[in-house]
Amino acid sequence: MRQIKKIIPFIIVLVLLGTAFYNGLVIRHYTVNTSKLNKDQSFRIVLISDLHSTIHGSEQSRIADRIRSQNPDVIALAGDIADDVQPIKGTSLFLETIKDIAPVFYVTGNHEIWSRDIDNIKDIFRHYDVTVLENESVEWEIREVSIIIGGAEDPEINRYERRQSNWEEEIRVAFCELESNEQFKVLLSHRPEQISVYKDLSFDLVLSGHAHGGQVRIPFLLNGLLAPNQGWFPKYAGGLYEHDSFTHIVSRGVSFNPRLPRIFNPPEIVVIDIVGQ
């Protein structure tokens, strides 16, 4: 009995380490209730971000199978699906595997802009019948429900294309006409930290990525240690955030880099049910 008691702490440590460094793909579910749909109406979005062209071969099929098993009505790609360093082949393989599952919508992330090949990247997405949203919105019908899906280009586009306009003002102007629209409205925008901009818009749901879950998490204590453009202890590292006028869901991303371990922060597919009330 004494020997068993002695090894229990080691077992606990091993379990914690295994859980902490687990990097298998998980499925994260969220539900968003809205009065803009009738009680008997609903639809499902699968959110994918931060693939970074890094996943190849059979893993692509496994991701597609996991997405397909969720029966999505829409697949939202919230940026950094392609990468500025990794070959584009990983992105093409991914798009090939998901093209027949559901309509796909995409916005750029910073790494796609950094590639300095953004026009070619967008053309690849369009080749797979993906709707590429460039500071614009489209009306889409799902299960007899008409919704608005908008997409904001990553702010890096202004710097790398040497645009003179202010990104924040450009986004506000691009979507100002939607304010009087009573349909349920979804915005894809890679950057979770741009809350001050999103609050000025009339979207009901904003979907982002970019933060990679803050890289290190401690359940119930720390939701993220460090994230791009947010720094230490990011406020919007990953999860669901309720604001006065909209719900914000931030994906922790699907890529995994062994040189930069994710701790208590496995890659994820995000499944969002929009439910009428």
Give a quick rundown of the structure.
The protein is α/β, with parallel strands linked by helices. It contains eight helices and 14 strands. It has helices at residues 2-20, 58-69, 89-98, 110-114, 118-127, 156-160, 167-175, 195-198, and strands at 26-34, 42-48, 74-77, 104-106, 131-132, 136-142, 145-152, 184-189, 205-208, 226-227, 231-232, 239-242, 247-250, 268-276.
Polypeptide structure, described:
This protein has 277 residues and is an alpha/beta fold. Helices cover 27% and strands 26% of the residues. It is built from eight helices and 14 strands. The protein has helices spanning 2-20, 58-69, 89-98, 110-114, 118-127, 156-160, 167-175, 195-198; strands at 26-34, 42-48, 74-77, 104-106, 131-132, 136-142, 145-152, 184-189, 205-208, 226-227, 231-232, 239-242, 247-250, 268-276. Strands 1-14-2-3-4-5 form a six-stranded mixed sheet, with helices on one face. A six-stranded mixed sheet has the order 6-7-8-9-13-12. Strands 10-11 form a two-stranded antiparallel ribbon.
